Amino acid sequence: MTISLSTLDPLIASRSLLNHPFYLKWSKGELTLDDLRIYAKEYFHLVERIPGIVDRVRARVRDRDLQMRIGESMREEQEHVELWKRFAKSLGISEVELTAHTPSQKVIDAVQSLEQVAEQGAEEGITAMYAMEAELPKIAETKKNGLCAFYGLTSEDAQIYFDEHLKEEKHLAVWRSFEVDNDRAQAAASTSLTAQNQVLDAVCEKCGISMRC
Questions:
Q1: DSSP 20
Q2: What are 148-205's pLDDT values in tens digits?
Q3: Which member of 4, 8, 70, 87 lies 3.0 to 4.6 Å from 58 by CB, making a disulfide possible if both were Cys?
């Protein structure tokens, strides 16, 4: 049985990153600037790998028009890597420091699981990306508001990555144009959500933040 990806929205909401302890603390102003610096360096490993994940999906799609649209999404994801560098810069992290940082093994493993699910097939990769991007506008708004309200990070460098992710509907429309097998989609979405939460789990461990916060 094939389904539209919007069918997965309740599953995605049930494991929303907005409910993760790290983002809850962010939205309450309970993180330190050092916490945000750790986050910026650890999360960069995912940000810089997303274009490659999208390219894996593009390579497995047969429809030429959809291939072209996914290719455009990939190019935008490459631009987002540079925007993340600007966010890190606003926290006092140089590009040299950011790119030289070795993330924790838990982050590396999480990103590898996303790469692996994208290599399973077009349906799995598209579902994994949809599960990653479906809530990005809400997440970006929460992050942006927190940076302004609690951390004094109001510069363009601090905000532009999150501003760009307020406009995620274009990417979501690409993924939603593809119907997927229900069983494969459920498994791929679950893998994607687990990996995304694992990245934040790793950040909490590095920051010494209780997972029960």
A1: S
A2: 999 999 999 999 999 999 987 888 888 888 889 999 999 999 999 999 999 999 999 9
A3: 70
